[in-house]
Every structure is written in C-alpha cells, then in structure tokens.
Amino acid sequence: MSPSCWFLAFLLVWCLPLMLVMAEEQQGGDCSAMKCGNVNISDPFWLTDKVTGKSCGRPPYQDFDVACINHTSPTLRSSIPFNMGYKILNISYEQRSFYAVDLGKLNVLQARNSCHEPFYNTSTKLNRPFKISPVNLNLILYNCTEKDEAAAAARRNRELAPTNVSCGNLWAVFARAGVPHDGTGNYNNYTLDGCRAVVVPVPASSAGANASDYKQLFNDGFLLTWDVPLPHHPSIFPRKFTRQIIF
To answer: Quick one: signal sequence residues (predicted)?
Structure first.
C-alpha cells in the first residue's frame, strides 16, 4: 500500500469516533443541554425527536418523556390514552418538583357551549413517579342541571361560580375554589346530590381566590413532585417502544 493510502486509512480510523459522536449529537445529543421554550429539560426528563423517534442521550425513563409542542411548550404525557397531558411551566431539579397545567381540563374550560365534560380527576391522569404536592389547594368542578336543588342552593350562597362550560339547557359546569388537598382523595364533604364532580389542584397561593377566576387558577398551574426513578432496565423500559399516547 502506498504511503498516501496508509495516511488516508489512518485518518479514517482516527476521525471515525469523532464522526459517530457528532452524528449522535445531531440525532439527540446530551439531554442536559436540551431546552423547550424557557424550560431546561435534563435528567430524568428527556425529549423525543419527532422524526426519528429517538431520545436524546442515554436510554430514557419512559414516564419522563416530554414533547416539545411548537418548540415552546414542554408537555408531559397523560397516563390515559388519547387524553391531553400536562404543560410544564418550570422545573426545580434540586427540589424534584415542577409546576404544570392540566391541558385537558383547560381545553374544556376554554370552550363555550360544549358538550364535553371534564371527566377525570387530575390525579388519575398522572404516571406513577409523579405526585400532587399537598401544599396545593383544589378547585372542584361540578356538572349539574338547572334542576339540581343542591347546586342551586350553593349558587345562591355564592359557594359556586358558573363557568363557560355547558351543553345547551341540559347541564352546566360550576366551580368551587379553596378546597384543601386531601392525600386520601376523600372529598365527600364537598359532594352535591345530582352533580358529578372532578377535583383539580390549583396553587396554594390561590387561598381566598374567587371561583370565578377559575381560568387564571388553571393557567397558574399546580405543584407536582417526582420520585427518583429506578435504574434503567431494558425489560422495564425498552429503548425502542411504540408511542401510542396522544398529548
């Protein structure tokens, strides 16, 4: 082999690892350097490339999968298929906590004359590592008809505030604010006969807030915490999986 060929062979061997590293960074790179809007996304959270379906950096924890919607809104998936997840407002990695907005409820409450109800309690949509912080208060949404005497009495006493959500003359949704968080999920003291109810956490700073400000309370988000994830194991979190959750 001529000296020039030996030189080219040596150059290829020397450059190949660098080329592979550059290619890996282009496909995802270091998760600690990722950002969506104004939110830094780093371990244990990770972003997925929508084109390749690959994660950035090392094998991810599946429940910490974050979608970057319109390059500005980091969104955590819901545990319920085809249900909208949670928009992340900010993350404190030191305290393992973040503020988020329940997009499914917010989407319903922003509608007018809609026949879609806010079906699920926010807690039922959370994946296992995440918990609602007990410092939050709660907003309770009631689906009632005009004939519900308990709801009518509560409205007269100004305990409930009307929302924009209704289905013609069939039913309407009302809000109650300032309900303390209950870790056991027992809110029987706030039930109303003939009304369906869902519980949504809102910031602790909303103490004394009027239920008529329900949209702002939703947009302010609520505090979530997470447990330290278990070490990655291929049998638990395979590197390649089929994404079936719609944010």
So the answer is: 1-23
- Residue 58's pLDDT is what? 59
pLDDT average, residue stretch 182-206: 87
What contacts 240, CB < 8 A, 6 or more positions away?
A: none
Handedness of CA 32, 47, 220, 86 (dihedral sign): negative
CB under 8 Å to 56, separation ≥6 — which residues?
28, 29, 30, 31, 34, 46, 47, 48, 49
CA distance 164 to 141: 12
Give the pLDDT of residue 171: 83
Q: Which domain holds residue 165?
A: 103-223
Prediction pTM value? 0.73
Assess whether 218 and 107 both reside in one domain: yes
Q: 217 phi and psi, to 5 degrees? A: -60, -40
Q: Tell which residue, 159, 152, 98, 166, has the closest CA to residue 126.
A: 98
pLDDT beyond 80 at 247: no
Measure the CA–CA gap between 61 and 77, rounded to whole angstroms.
13
**H-type alpha helices, 110-187:** 149-156
Are both 215 and 123 inside the same structural domain? yes
- Counting Cβ atoms within 10 Å, is residue 156 exposed (0-12), middle (13-18) or buried (19+)? exposed
